[in-house]
Input
Amino acid sequence: MKLLKPWITVLVGYLLLKFGVPLVGSVLHPGTWPVVPTSVMKMYVFFMVAGALLINSFSEEGYNASIGPVMDLYTNPAKGRLRMGVILVVGLFGAYVAYQYVKPTFDAPVELRSVHPAPPSAAKAWGKSYNLQTLKNPFREDTANLAKHSEEGGKVYYQNCYFCHGDMMLGKGPYAEGFNPMPANFVDIGTIAQLTESFVFWRISTGGPGLPSEGTPWISAMPIWHHLLSEEEVWKVIIFLYDYTGHKPRVMAEHH
Amino acid sequence: MRSTKGIMTVAAAVALAVYFAALTGPAIAAAGDVKNGETVYMKKCWWCHGKEGEADGPGADFMIPPPRNFADGVYKYRSSAPDSDLPRDEDLFRMISDGMPGTSMPAWSKVLDEKQRWDLVAYIKSLTDMFEDMENPPEMAYPSPAPSSPDSIAKGKQLFKDAKCFECHGEGGKGNTIKKLKEESGAKLWPRNLTQPWTFRGGNDPKDIYARITSGIPNTPMPAHAAEKTGAGKLSVEDRWHVVNYVMSLADSRMEVKEGEIVVKGVYRETLPTDENDPAWDIAEGTTFFLVPQIIQDERIYDPSNNGILVKSTFTDKEVAFLLEWDDRTRSVKGDPTSAMLAWGALGSDGVAIQTPLDLDNLASGKPYFGHGDASRPVSMMYWNSGDVEKGQSGSMFSTIGSGKKDVSDAAAAGFVSTGSYKDGTWKVMMRRNLVTDAKDKDTQFAAGKYIPIAFANWDGSNGEIGSKHTLTTWRWLLLKPETGSAVVMVPLMVFVLLVAGQFIFSVVGRKED
Amino acid sequence: MSKLTKSAGVCDRLKEKNKGGRFLALVGSLFLMVVLAGGLAPMSDGAGFFAGQAWANEAAQPAHDEASAEMAPAEGAATEGEEAADEGWKPMTTPALEEKDYPRVAGVDGRLAVWIAAQLHLFFAAFVLGVPIFVWVIELIGVLSGDKRYDHMAHEFMKVTMTGFSLAASFGGLLSILLVVFYPDFMAYMTSVFGKTMIIYALMFFAESFFVYTYYYGWDKMSSSPGLKWLHLGLGLGLNGSGMVLMVLSNSWASFMMAPSGIGPEGQFLGDSWAAIHGKLWNPLNLHRFIANIAYGGSLTAAYAAFKFITTSSAEEKAHYDWMGYTSFIIAMAGLLPLPFAGYWLTKEVYDYSQQMGITLMGGVFAWLFILQAVLIGAIFLSANYYLWCSLGRTEASKRFYYIIQPLGIIIVIAFLTWFTPHTLIMNSKELSQIGGAHHSVLGPLGVMAAKNTAVNILILSTFLSFQLFMRSNSRPAGDGFWARNGLPIQIALFTAAIVNIVFLGVYSYWIPANIRIGLSIPQVSTTAVVCVLGIVFQTLEFRGAKDIGVFRWGHMPDRAQYALFMLAVSFTWLMGLMGYCRSAIRQHWHVYTVFRDNSIEAFTPTLPYAAWVVTIIVMIFMALVFFMFWMPILAAKNKEEQEAGH
Output
């Protein structure tokens, strides 16, 4: 009975992962049922079972008690029929697992991609070179006219950006569905809230093709906006993004 | 003046809300606060609907359908009784909360709380005098629906014909109109494709459809069919339900994009289908992709008409074939008078293109730019268009290293064949070519068993889509799944034999040790 | 043969003058220690690298301040230009190569060949560099304690290593040939920068050979007198010293390729070898490899002991190899524990050098390697704990602790599951829609560093607890001194407080900004370190003069515990292969990062499954060779026995 305990624990652990995790998730985010993805679940179960085996077998008594019955089944001449059955079932199970692996599927490949590019020290746009370390938003200082510049930036946004990044800045514009990965969500604290304005300027101006050739693949559909917008418009739209979302651009600490 | 009007409106809104709340509505409706509504409106809404609600915000010119004009006070989607011209507060609330599928109006319930949305309702009503002194109209009566049955659907189909619904919505309901339609404002308008209920702006519940048929859609050619109204095409309550049932039966989810499905499933066959209408295509499973307008370079387009493309693929040891299928309301052929009559802007040809990277071996560090590739990573294209009346349709192959930098390939040498046909609002185009060609610097060399990035482009020639103005997909995947052969049986069998033998040996050895 | 006689003669003479011999040995050891210290000194970033400065000066040029060499290349180039003109030799600039500049030999994939040879060389080199370090320490312990068993064990460790030396050298030779064959221009460039150090490397190799042979073959002969024994220890120091120099020199080539230094904008060598060697990543790499070599050597010798344990049937030998396995295991674990921190330092310096390289390492295609790494490290911890639990079986008295193992095991498994929960979850489309986006509301928070730090600290503490349980399993505190009475409650309190502190810091860190959050891992780690040190101190105090409860039986271990040791060795090897690939591959399409572009046909970054397969196959080849290596001494012993029997 004592030896069953680890297995019961494994079962409880599995049930917790299978139903407990989604339940907690559905409370945190109503409307979702965040299951543990199969890929992760397999690893979890594997290591729980491995753990149970280890706990069961470290002592001589434990080993004999847990492995003994198995050995008995395989070697006891009196259990011939049962043995054949088990051998067959184990074989069939193996065949089933093998079939699952080789059967043809059209699952999408897993795409690994880099998310956070490091800014180069300089970037080229509008035929000029910008030093991103020292680059500042020319409209940021003009606090008196910030609201005006923000509104002008908003116009740029609604005529160029909102189609993908959306009305609500959540990266879910009317055409966002066509893109994978999804367009950036500006409300999220993981995007513009963590970036300097010069970085945002670089990302907008040079777009996906402007990303460094190191650290690939990026898989970005961001167009090269310096082909379509003026420098001023880009700075203004940056003002608008921070103004609308309420985020503050990151300010670089003095680098020594 | 403005302030008195404001106070009046507030008073009216409050009175209305109190009245409404006292009757049926949720208590929160009573709190619709015009002032708060204005604050929210001036932060979130005016960009499209305009500061005065006149649908002239900075974004307004870049969307079809255009944003609602609140100053006019004419609302398209309403559930109020047919004798009323006004929408109910609940209608406005619902449109704000849930948004309108297929338009630029998002579901604001994601970022605005319930009170803010009711405040907005109060505010946008204050932008017109239509609601002044008006009570919230009662909800339309939905008399007991006729249950859907083959008989009811058949009746609905007949009524669809008799009431001349097909003239705009097409015989199969795909919106393949025979008339050029526009909004009262003159804005471009394409009739609803009734086979795609997920694009119904005002909802696709039977009740919503009933409401549309009954009250029509103001501002558009969609008439009211309520018997209470006068004019042509009146339908009795029962008839309207038959039509609802018929419309519901038209739904076809094939063209709906399934979340997470991004692979074109290339199936191995001994022989390829001969053309786009070959029933052999039925065996292949299609994948549907969302088409987005090209808004990133050159001449951009903001008002696409086609929204999805279904792709099938089969291949043999030598060739690969693609079937491209999309709902298109117009068959656009240059020089064709019908096409010209229906077209908005200059008439172009309908077209479709398949794009693949030229070099399939070096993709780990990135795919070509999805818009025509770039100098270091060229792409290869297969292109078909409906052509003109004289020369008919045509196809070609070429490679590009960026927009406009194309290098034409010898399509005949690659065994390239393309044919297309249009029927009842749907284009079907087949493209076929050799897997491997001699022009390795211009043509993608297809190979089975590996994931090949693939992208599509589509032109609706009657919607002003010419050149760089078109819809597209970003990179998706094509997998030409090799014939599984015997592996699918042999591998499990071998595992089975190994396991059984292993266990058997184990038991024999174990017994000896005893 | 003549060499042996000669050295034996020297020994004899030294034996005669016992006192003088010890003096000589001491002076020799001191000298070698200075050399060794010279190798270690730059870790404190001082300018006092003994040998380094020596050949910087030799270059007839004042040693460049590292910063000035990097920041003002023009200046350096100009000075060097004059000098070069005098000598009539110009430093090579990095050539812009094309595909045709890379020879294709017999259709062999050059990159793959170099990869396999380099990795196998590194496995064996790490092994033969790591083992002598602790062999020397064990020999010293044997000398100081007078316990012959230590000496025998140290000698046996050396015996295992001997085949490794020749294999390491053979693969090293193969690697250099392959490099010259497939990458001639690259090698020409590297020689133009590192020519001097390469010569020193070759010389050091001779020194290493000398030391290794005299150390190993002189072992028995030099055990005869204390003076000779000290000389022998001096040879061991020489072996370690020369090995260390070999390692740091070859490290400098690898670190130069990742973060070049001492060169001008065109990639031309500026004449200061020290500047080229002392790149930004050199010392982090030195430290990381030094510690890893010890851990790796320990894990392989543990596998050797396990192999011998399983294959022998004599109870006496089983006891010996059990002890040997246990010792190796402790060495491996002692090496493993500080390794992550050396790794953090290396990563931090990578980020410091090039943020992009850091991002490539941690955020992009390579991110999945770190999940594999997490799984393997978890497997190491599971094996280690299992081995320690099995160790309890060496005494009967330990049965009283068995009840703790199950909850401890559960904690370890939970910590492990948290530890490898990926940041980016792989999910199919159905799961994606159920989860409501790529972010998992429950597992997502487990994927970030805060959770991982907490989990790994708990994992280390649990392993340490398993170790503590084993250590105390056969002892009962003696007397009623303060520690004898209160030692246990104090230790329990210590562990409890540590766990509470670590979990609290981990949970708390979710509520504070990212830049402060990173800082919280330091108190977490310090807590673990403090518990490990204090735990040992307290336990020692508690058991001062303690009595054994029952008999302690070395060799009373099940075979399955030995498989845990195999598991440990395989996991270590695999980890080294995968992370070594990762370190090298983040240069992507550069031979020398940002300076010398790789334009060969194989310049692209391979897909992860491909890389994982290559590494796995290399690990398999290596393991087969290791088996061969273990088997050789047995075969030799057998032959000897047969010969003796024949006589």
User: Anything to note?
Assistant: Chain B touches chain C through seven residues (CB under 8 Å). Residues 487-513 of chain B form the longest helix (27 residues).
